[in-house]
Queue: 2 jobs
Job 1
Amino acid sequence: MKAWEKNVRKVEPYVPGEQPKIDGIIKLNTNENPYPPSEKVMEALKALENDKMRLYPDPEAVELRDEIAKKYGTKRENVFVGVGSDDVISMCYMTFFNSDKPILFPNISYSFYPVWADVHKVPYKEVEVGPNFEIIVDTFKQENGGIIFPNPNAPTGLSLGLDAIEQIVASNQDSVVIVDEAYVDFGTESALKLVDKYDNLLVVQTYSKSRSLAGMRIGFAIGNVALINALNDVKFSFNSYTMNYTSIKLGVAVMDDWDYFEETRKKIIATRERSKEELTKLGFTFPDSKANFIFASHKTVKAEYIFDELKKRKIYVRYFKKPLIDSYLRITIGTDEAMDKLFEALREIVA
Ligand code: PMP
């Protein structure tokens, strides 16, 4: 071992879902939106100014923050934007989770949470979900240095009511509570309603799922001014130009087409509900998802086998070879046609 190798930070990185470079696959493994972004996004893309590429983008992304603030009935000072919600949450760890006490998140949840804790050297404790994967409010009533959980939860898809969220926030007013609402638009009530009431609540959302723009990397957080200012101070200490010119412009255009957003998210919800019926007929069980995926387990056939067999048929779903969840597959809701192909394949595999 060379001397400098002793000083290299060893981290176990997050493992993202596969992005296969194969033609003709059905991709149901990373919770992307099956529909393209609104036509307005393509128009905004064509209207980009060549000369603006030469310049640094607006470090404060004012145009985008104003558009988000307008759509969610808040002010620019209450909005923080980042390169996907992953970037926003990573900044949150650095900004808000600096206590010696452990931060809390559910033991079955977004697998990036422990990775950020390790990389930012934040102590953490995983609180146990119930026997049906439900988040238990009382598990968050213990000493902590901060709290984060997704609503709906990933990979289970289960959602928590606003009353339950309020209890968690209200009983932890000495900590910052982050509600990660990556999938909220697929049928869960947002905690945004509570941000004026609680100065320790930060709500994080993304353009990657319900707004069909995962490729542009846009995430945002809404909370009281003190939280947003603290986040900006940390962000500007790393890199002031995180949000590029194209993302700012396309992010504004997406927010401007609310009708299209409503149409596509409703289509996905309808396909999800139909998929629940089909999967039940095929012998699967699953928590009642309110997200754009279903976390399904087959009564008799092993998840890993189904995963491999689907892959042979060029259908990609997500399988986590981890304790407690290794008998489940996380299946993203695709178009109706894609889902029909999935059911056809499953009929062969589990028959
Ligand atoms: N939170 C959760 C719960 C997620 O599943 C994801 C998607 N991997 C993210 C945050 C991050 O999404 P993005 O960085 O694309 O906004």
Job 2
Amino acid sequence: MERVLEVGEIVFQDRRLAPIWEKVRAGERLSLRDGVTMLATDDFPALGRIADHAKRKVSGDRVYFVLNRHINPTNICVLSCKFCDFAKKPGQADAYEMTIEDVLAQMDNDIREVHIVGGHHPSWKFEYFEEMVRRIHEQFPEVQIKAFTAAEIDYFWRRWKIDPEESLSRLKAAGLASMPGGGAEVFSDRVHKELLPGKANARRWGDIHRMAHAMGIKSNCTLLYGHIETFEERVSHLIQLREIQDDTGGFLAFIPLEYQVGTTKIVPRHTPPMDDLKMIATARLMLDNIPHIKSYWVMLGEATASLGLNFGADDLDGTIGKERIAHAALADSPAGLARQKMVRLIRDAGRIPVERDALYNVTRVYEN
Ligand code: V47
């Protein structure tokens, strides 16, 4: 029998996790080295216990989800990010553009959140997006609009010279409730140069979220992992997000986005489920100041996403509807999940399902 170490109620196969557990219990911040140790360990049961302890302090047994719809108004994009199967050039066979009526037709009064992101379109004016937000808000005042990544806000500046303070305040006036966390990818100059040249970089992404937070617009944050990034780069990214949050307190949730190999194939296969679970746990423990960590079923698949709820995640995202970004990259998950399915996935993980809105106001608790 292998020698194990028992500290508190956790049994460690990997002794390097014991001092991390001590720090977490003492409320001390974890370092870059701690983060890399967590991602590299084989002792994922012990890591899960530590992350679950941290999760319970914030959300107890609750796991959140939202009745929502993802709408991607166009896939036409001037960028050519190497990981992206979604973006198309004008005139390409699968390129599409939605009218505002098309967008409105995908909405209904049952949802609490609409999540809108799309390509960096070469000729759609900022005013078109502003009008889209205004019309949605007018027709569906109860639905919170979570829209436009920092990369899109940056593009309104590059393309139309509308600076982020102006675009954000105009979008807020039109009805924007919050911003999604996409477009961050990996905060590393090396990865940026290799995979996403020409897109907003780490500093710009962070500055735009800081501006949004200063204007009272809450937002989310993400990391795209499972491709060419190193463990050090993943953890350094988390530390940069933690620093922004120390200053602003404006992030609601972090979403680890597992790279979908699709046809871009920058690595030959998906990162294994054990890496997904360690990524969720490491995010929960490094991001001690961000309240919610999502287990994003669209990219993880339902089984791994449900397991993630025992590894520090307290949110399954939402019912989604017709998601196009991960599905363009051949994600196996269904297009959308019904409310009852979300409830079941959360109960299967032994947790209490809680419906929320985009800002984490609770709308329904499913007690047993
Ligand atoms: O920014 C593109 C990523 C993001 C691929 O804020 C890919 O609540 C994996 O940000 N494999 C959009 N990822 C998704 C996103 C998101 C999702 C759910 C909730 C929230 C939130 C945000 O998808 C993009 C990019 O990082 N992406 N291609 C791919 N092949």
